[in-house]
Amino acid sequence: MAQGTFHIITFGCQMNVNDSFWLTRSLQRRGFVESPLEQAEIVILNTCSVRDKPEQKVYAALGRIKYETRRVPGSFAVVAGCVAQQIGAGFFERFPQVRLVVGGDGLAMAPDTIERLHADPKLRLNLTDFSEVYPERDPALPEHGESPIPPVAYVNIMQGCDNFCTYCIVPFTRGRQKSRQADAILDECRALIDSGAKEITLLGQNVNAYGLDKHATGDVSFGQLLRRAAELPGLERLRFVTPHPKDLSADVIAMFGELPNLCPRLHLPLQAGSDRVLARMNRKYDMARYRELVEGLRAARPDIALSTDLIVGFPGETEEDFQETLAAVRDVGFMSSFSFCYSDRPGTAASRPTDKGEPAEKLPRLERLQALQEELSAAWLHGRVGCKTEVLLEGTSRKQDGDAENESWQGRDPWGDAVNVSLPSGTGAPGLILPVTIVTAKKHSLVGEVRH
Asked: What CA–CA distance (Å, rounded) separates 163 from 218?
């Protein structure tokens, strides 16, 4: 029996996207119905505070939600995620429509709590306490006869971070690192495969530090977990994100050449190409070590695709430092990158120095960096033309070519590139893996033709 309507808006990282997907399934199990924003009794914001702009978007979104749901009797808002952890009960004072604030460790309790709030319109709750251990939750997977999950699935293996990079707010909003029980991870992976998943990505704020925290149980390392996951029957593809360079071990690097279903793509955050800036960031590696990791990865898997994260205008960054970042990006040849101007985050060590640099310097540097990356990304995509690969279909393209006899489908190859394929109408399906030849490179994607 339907209990009420809900709508979820998600900001930030893939862990937030996965949390929102889980929360959707869990609420539906309790009888709630997903609906458009303007019809929702319960609007949930799953938030990010890694940078300042996403945080400001949350405040703007709450104002828009109040307007959009003004005709829905008894409607209320829930703020979850990192901004919820950071601001806490302060949301209640500024936004009367907010009745639940829930941090990352409290999310496992959110479905039951939302059910209570829906039944009791006077209740307001703040769930922002940190847990000492990983907060396990019901995976809320489809039962027999229900719609299968998408072919690409995600599994959290740990939460929080112990690194305290000087610019990063994650240890303050996600807490200290907590590794999940290996058996629980593998059980969830098996259940996802049984429900239709062909590809699984293992998730964590510092995913390859799995098992190194004081709360870890058992003696399973990240490398051992990765190998056990790769051996699960029916798993076509395996990925992990986001690793830290300081924790990337030789055995994990070797697995890119040993495990046939470990995809040849790795997102390895660099942040800066200057040793001086890396030291100020407390990254615990230098460029010599990073290049050594890249050499090892390419020795294990010569065709591996590398992507990265970069911060421009970190406090104290000089033009010489920035030139070293440009040189590093060019030398490694990243196929893609996420790059941003530095912004202070409250409570972090980097927010205290006074040598912030002028905004007028940051933006031109960011534009130069992104122009270089556009060249590298274009070169990568054009270099893929003529290659034979396999595409895991995820869904039909929003843009159809108007040919009634054919449909345009989208998917990804093992290197993580988006590939569009034209198929006879009615022959495509999510989860289908097709052999294709890449025939065209577009600005951000590829076009493939099916090999028969």
From this structure: 22
Mean pLDDT by 10 residues, the chain (452 residues): 85 89 93 95 91 79 92 95 90 93 93 95 92 86 73 94 93 90 95 94 95 77 97 98 97 98 98 98 98 98 98 95 98 97 90 72 95 98 98 88 83 97 94 98 96 87
Least Cα distance to 126 among 160, 85, 176 occurs for: 85
pLDDT at 357: 64
Domain 5-127 has CATH 3.40.50.12160: yes
d(CA 419, CA 409): 8
Classify burial at 386, counting beta carbons within 10 Å of its beta carbon; exposed 0-12, middle 13-18, buried 19 or more.
Answer: exposed
Q: Are strands 42-47 and 5-10 parallel, antiparallel or unpaired?
A: parallel
CATH class, range 388-450: mainly beta
User: Can you tell me the distance from the alpha carbon of 343 to that of 346, in angstroms, rounded to the nearest whole number?
Assistant: 10
- Strand segments (E) across 165-304: 178-179, 199-203, 237-241, 265-267
Q: State how far the Cα of 345 lies from the Cα of 32, in Å rounded to an integer.
A: 36
Cβ atoms of 246 and 285 within 8 Å: the answer is yes
> H or E segment at 436?
strand 433-441
Structure tokens at 125: 């709750």
Query: Which pLDDT value is given to residue 213?
Result: 86
Task: Say how far apart CA 158 and CA 208 lie, in whole Å.
Answer: 9
d(CA 138, CA 30): 13
Domain boundaries, the chain: 5-127, 152-380, 388-450
DSSP 341-383: E----TT-GGGS-S----HHHHHHHHHHHHHHHHHHHHHHHHH
pLDDT at 360: 73
Helix (H) / strand (E) containing 12: none
Upper half-sphere CA count for residue 443 (Cβ side, 13 Å): 1
Looking at residue 141, what is its pLDDT?
Answer: 80
The CATH code that applies to domain 152-380 is 3.80.30.20
Token readout for 368 is 């130069």
Exposure pattern of 180-204 as b/e (b: 16+ CB <10 Å)?
bbbeebbebbbbbbebbbbbbbbbb
For position 388, what pLDDT does the model report?
97
The distance of Cα 247 from the centroid of its chain, to the nearest Å, equals 19
Instruction: Tell me what pLDDT residue 143 has.
Output: 72
Q: Residue 1: its pLDDT value, please? A: 47
